[in-house]
């Protein structure tokens, strides 16, 4: 068990600033996701926490103590790699045993002749027992004698997880562990990893580019972009109260609708504004925060461009007069709109987000102005 | 599936160029050697007589042949591990280093590309008993000087050292290719799994994953070391007192100095058997690896 504190961590490669002063406090036992598009620095941050990469500035604290000068092996962390990084020449059981063999046996006991020592035999027996228990817990006992090459992606992922678990580390670092799995396996593995976290109670730091993984598994999400953390919050807060337009756009599928708007006195928002308006903002609303309506009095209007029927939801794409594509979620049980229909769009004013031109959220309770 | 006549003709036409070349350059010379080995032919003779295994019987009774065979095996026993170890160590050092990698790679590979005959002459001067750099250095450091190439006890080993110098660069390049195929992630995983030091990392990852390359390197090194000839011819001519007599040199001397072609052919058969048996070893190891994966 460990808390992880990231204090003003900076990483530069030559002229490139990969991480720009990252501060993040991860609580003991928390499942936190670092999510962001590729190249945002999330994997670099994870490697810095593990010690595999050295930061250019700042500190990493584990349980309150700085570990900047401590080797990765002595930080008591375990990591699951995107490639799984299983030792190809060792069997599954041998792979899982490596962290224990390396830590419990001394150099003599590990050597070829040392295996004959009674102390080595006893330790190896004890290790085999622990490996067996971890294999049982992840239901991979039948794979123990196989080599990684003969395993499926999902099985390899479990072996990698088992190798991380066997040592009972104080925190787990996971670098996109599910990205090599097919879509179906990924959903299943998502549930398994979340369950594992609840069962072990250890700190999990999970790096992913998939917002759905972050949303479904995490206690908290840190959204990273361009080497900065834009927002750290619970999945609900991130989704409902994005503090930055880029967070709002990254989280949620289908993507949030963003339109240029004019903000006039009394928090009145209008989508029909003169181009010269200097009170421009960006208004955003999620597909489920809007509904189709008659054209009369609707703040937005357009022609239905395409309809995506997902069974449970109907996502209607409306091309507005201004040339924006707006997605509106409809109930498939209701009246089915048709492509080419002229429709109005009405948004739930309570669920409108307004961002300034600097992408930061502007707090307020807005009213929409319908065009005359 | 049966092939039509035209398909048959097309197939034969397509393998013809390769087959003809193989027959001219491989199968014909090999079979003529095989035939010669059972005759009494001497270079320039107008006729020949089959004499069965007499040439081989003569080999068994010939101390020079046994000396030559054992010298070849001793030479290989020094050169193969020597050039492998040096190749592996330099590959690991270059791989671990960050600067001047291509410089070291080129520098160590140069002896492989250089003409060995020319290099042998350079070595001859370096090893010269009175003014060679080796002896002058040894003397300056207070060691005894030697007549390196004329001392029967050490001449073969001196040639082996030259052999190692000449060939380890090639092994280094093969090992480097093998090293670059090992995923970096494995070393990261090993660090987090708690491998305490570089030697343990080497034992856990590098050596097992390099094993197929090592087998290949061992076998090619062995075959190339059996073929040692240039340095022997240039530096010692098999002397002193047959101390550096090796198979290929014996074949050359028998065939082209004493013109006993049939005798040389018999030694060649032995040489070929030696090379083939090592190649078979590789075949077996490949098969074993194939099953293991």
TrEMBL record, chain A:
Domain ABC transporter: 4-251
Primary location class: membrane
Membrane topology: Peripheral membrane protein
Keyword Cell membrane (UniProt): yes
One cellular component term from this protein's GO annotations in UniProt: ATP-binding cassette (ABC) transporter complex, substrate-binding subunit-containing
MF annotations from Gene Ontology: ABC-type transporter activity; ATP binding; ATP hydrolysis activity
UniProt KW keywords: ATP-binding, Cell inner membrane, Cell membrane, Membrane, Nucleotide-binding, Translocase, Transport
Origin: domain of life: Bacteria
Location in or out of the cell: Cell inner membrane
Keyword set includes Cell inner membrane: yes
PANTHER family the record matches: MALTODEXTRIN IMPORT ATP-BINDING PROTEIN MSMX, TREHALOSE IMPORT ATP-BINDING PROTEIN SUGC
Family, as annotated: Belongs to the ABC transporter superfamily.
Record protein name field: Glycerol-3-phosphate ABC transporter ATP-binding protein
Organism: Xaviernesmea rhizosphaerae
From TrEMBL, chain B:
Family: Belongs to the binding-protein-dependent transport system permease family.
Keyword tags: Cell membrane, Membrane, Transmembrane, Transmembrane helix, Transport
Superkingdom classification of source: Bacteria
The species this protein was found in: Rhizobium lemnae
Protein name as it appears in the record: Carbohydrate ABC transporter permease
Repeat keyword on record: no
Stretches assigned to the ABC transmembrane type-1 domain: 69-282
Membrane topology: Multi-pass membrane protein
Transmembrane segments: 12-38, 73-94, 106-126, 154-183, 204-223, 264-284
InterPro entries xrefs: ABC_transporter_permease, MetI-like, MetI-like_sf
Subcellular location as annotated: Cell membrane
SUPFAM superfamilies linked: MetI-like
Keyword match tRNA processing: no
């Amino acid at each position: 068990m460990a808390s992880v504190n990231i204090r003003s961590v900076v990483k530069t490669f030559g002229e490139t600033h990969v991480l720009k002063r990252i501060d993040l406090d991860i609580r003991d036992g928390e499942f936190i996701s670092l999510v962001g598009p590729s190249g945002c620095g999330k994997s670099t941050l994870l490697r810095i926490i593990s010690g595999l990469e050295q930061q250019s500035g700042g500190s990493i604290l584990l349980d309150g103590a700085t570990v900047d000068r401590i080797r990765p092996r002595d930080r008591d962390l375990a990591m699951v790699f995107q490639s799984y990084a299983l030792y190809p020449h060792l069997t599954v059981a041998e792979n899982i045993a490596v962290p224990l063999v390396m830590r419990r046996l001394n150099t003599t006991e590990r050597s070829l002749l040392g295996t004959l020592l009674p102390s080595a035999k006893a330790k190896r027996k004890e290790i085999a027992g622990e490996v067996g228990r971890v294999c049982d817990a992840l239901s991979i006992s039948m794979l123990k004698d196989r080599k990684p090459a003969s395993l499926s992606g999902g099985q390899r992922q479990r072996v990698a997880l088992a190798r991380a678990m066997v040592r009972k580390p104080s925190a787990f670092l996971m670098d996109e562990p599910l990205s090599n799995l097919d879509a179906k396996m990924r959903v299943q593995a998502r549930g398994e990893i979340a369950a594992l976290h609840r069962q072990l109670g250890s700190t999990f730091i999970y790096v992913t580019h998939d917002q759905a993984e972050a949303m479904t598994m995490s206690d908290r999400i840190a959204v990273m972009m361009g080497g900065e953390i834009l927002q750290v919050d619970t999945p609900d807060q991130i989704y409902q109260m994005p503090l930055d337009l880029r967070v709002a756009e990254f989280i949620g599928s289908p993507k949030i609708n963003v339109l240029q708007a004019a903000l006039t006195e009394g928090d009145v928002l209008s989508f029909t504004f003169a181009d010269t308006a200097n009170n421009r903002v960006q208004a955003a609303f999620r597909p489920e925060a809007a509904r189709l309506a008659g054209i009369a009095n609707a703040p937005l209007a357009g022609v239905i461009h395409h309809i995506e029927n997902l069974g449970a939801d109907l996502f209607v794409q409306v091309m507005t007069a201004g040339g924006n594509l707006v997605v509106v979620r409809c109930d498939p049980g209701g009246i089915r709109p048709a492509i080419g229909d002229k429709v109005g769009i009405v948004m739930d004013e309570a669920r409108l987000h307004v961002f300034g031109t600097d992408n930061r959220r502007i707090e307020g309770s807005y009213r929409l102005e319908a065009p005359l | 599936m049966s092939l039509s006549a035209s398909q048959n003709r097309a197939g034969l036409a397509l393998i013809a160029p390769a087959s003809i070349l193989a027959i001219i350059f491989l199968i014909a010379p090999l079979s003529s050697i095989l035939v010669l080995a059972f005759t009494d032919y001497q270079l320039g003779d107008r006729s020949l007589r089959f004499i069965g295994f007499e040439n081989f019987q003569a080999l068994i009774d010939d101390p020079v042949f046994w000396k030559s065979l054992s010298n070849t095996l001793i030479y290989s026993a020094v050169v193969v591990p020597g050039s492998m170890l040096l190749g592996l160590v330099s590959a690991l050092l270059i791989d671990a280093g960050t600067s001047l990698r291509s410089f070291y790679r080129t520098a160590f590979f140069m002896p492989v590309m250089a003409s060995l005959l020319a290099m042998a002459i350079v070595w001859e001067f370096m090893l010269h008993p009175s003014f060679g750099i080796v002896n002058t250095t040894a003397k300056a450091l207070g060691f005894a000087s030697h007549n390196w190439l004329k001392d029967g006890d050490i001449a073969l080993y001196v040639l082996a050292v030259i052999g190692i110098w000449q060939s380890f660069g090639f092994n280094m390049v093969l090992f480097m290719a093998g090293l670059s195929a090992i995923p970096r992630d494995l070393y990261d995983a090993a660090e987090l799994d708690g491998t305490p030091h570089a030697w343990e990392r080497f034992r856990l990852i590098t050596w097992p994953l390099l094993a197929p390359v090592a087998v290949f390197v061992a076998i090619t090194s062995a075959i190339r070391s059996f073929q040692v000839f240039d340095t022997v011819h240039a530096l010692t001519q098999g002397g002193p007192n047959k101390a550096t007599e090796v198979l290929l040199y014996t074949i050359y001397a028998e065939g082209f100095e004493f013109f006993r072609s049939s005798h040389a052919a018999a030694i060649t058969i032995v040489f070929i058997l030696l090379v083939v048996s090592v190649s078979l070893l590789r075949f077996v190891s490949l098969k074993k690896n194939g099953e293991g994966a």
